[in-house]
Amino acid sequence: MTTKLILRTGVKAFSNGYVYSRFCTGELSFCRTLPYKQFTRPLATKDDVEKNIQKYKEGKFGTLPDPDKLDHFRKSNDDKKQATSLQASTEDLPPLGTHALPHPIWTERELHSVEITHKPPEGFVDKAAYYTVQIMRTVFDVISGFKWGQTNEQKWLKRIIFLETVAGVPGMVAAMTRHLHSLRRMQRDYGWIHTLLEEAENERMHLMTALQLRQPGFMFRTGVIVAQGTFVTLFSFSYLISPRFCHRFVGYLEEEAVKTYTKCLKDIEDGNMQHWKTHPSPEFATRYWKLAPDATMKDVILAIRADEAHHRLVNHTLASMKETDYNPYKPGQ
Ligand SMILES: [Fe+2]
Ligand SMILES: [Fe+2]
Predict the structure, then answer these.
(1) How many whole angstroms from 165 Cα to the centroid of ligand 1?
(2) Chain segment 218-230, per-residue pLDDT in tens
(3) Cα-based angle 89, 93, 94 (whole degrees, multiple of 5)
(4) Which of 119, 133, 167, 242 could cross-link 252 (Cys pair, CB 3.0–4.6 Å)?
(5) Residue 265's pLDDT band (boundaries 50, 70, 90)?
(6) Residue 294 CA to ligand 1 centre (angstroms)
(7) Higher pLDDT among residues 113 and 36, named by residue
(8) How far apart are CA 162 and CA 144, in angstroms?
(9) The pTM is what?
(10) What structural domains does the chain harbor?
(11) What's CA 64's distance to the chain center, in Å?
């Protein structure tokens, strides 16, 4: 049976499985024997989404109802009246970060007690990881020109944005590799995957935060694409050969990240970035890190630095463990 749907393009699938539609013209044909209901998902109304966002903001994330059991959720596409009410513009979409994975929320004391630390490399693998990071950092500093001249907001944002596009790669590659190993070998994962995915998302949130203040241009985006293609390829092969090298590499990368954000905080305290002491935190960042309503960019950078220090600890720990050891970090820790 051929089922033909007249849909309008711009259909957006949310991670929680609901579909929010933007209607414009277009046609999709499904020439399979699938019954109609099998490839359509219940649609959430704008009100449903807003209610859930409100509950999320109030910290009732764990008590959200199962949407499949809600009567007011759409059960089929036949109701054209309701379809009209599902029209949504970009402004209607849930706020950035609403569906974020669990992650640590730092106390005031934790935010201010982050220190620059270094784990001395032990053995060939550690040394290889350490010197790889040092070479990468030196090359990046020279190419980006960050060290020359005075720092300013533009320079900081460029540096943060570029580095965070790279920092989000290892967790995702490592999680995917362990996931595929688990499937292929038909063995359990020992609980590492969620921590790695949380790290990847957390790094991506650092990127999303910086993007609230600056949108990169064409050349910058081209550089990011080239860097991502290269780094994903090299890191993926490296993870297949030596997960220990990769986690140690990330551990040393995070040591550098803590240094970078500490330097940024110093610049905010008494350098060229003092306006970030009063620059309001982007709404998304305030929500994601559960900051005070009057939080500033300084508070955001403190939270990001605490995240990096956490990644430093997690990856040095994972690098020192056997692949079959249980992950000591529970979700959100
Ligand atoms: Fe980061
Ligand atoms: Fe990090």
Answers:
(1) 9
(2) 999 999 999 999 9
(3) 165
(4) 133
(5) very high
(6) 23
(7) 113
(8) 10
(9) 0.73
(10) 3-92 (no CATH), 108-319 (1.20.1260.140)
(11) 23
Query: H or E element: which one contains 210?
Result: helix 193-211
Instruction: Report the percentage of the chain scoring pLDDT > 70.
Output: 73
Q: What is d(CA 151, CA 179) in angstroms, rounded to the nearest whole number?
A: 42
Tell me phi and psi for residue 73, to 5 degrees.
-80, 145
Closest ligand to 309 CA? 2
Q: What percent of the chain has pLDDT over 90?
A: 62
Closest ligand to C-alpha of residue 171 is 2
Tell me the pLDDT tens digit for each residue of 131-168. 999 999 999 999 888 888 888 999 999 999 999 999 99
Judged by its nearest atom, the ligand closest to the C-alpha of residue 170 is 2
Give the DSSP letter string of 207-230: HHHHHTT----HHHHHHHHHHHHH
Question: Which ligand has the minimum distance to the alpha carbon of residue 163?
Answer: 1
| Nearest-ligand number for the alpha carbon of 314 | 2
Residues less than 5 Å from ion ligand 1, measured at CB? 164, 167, 203, 206
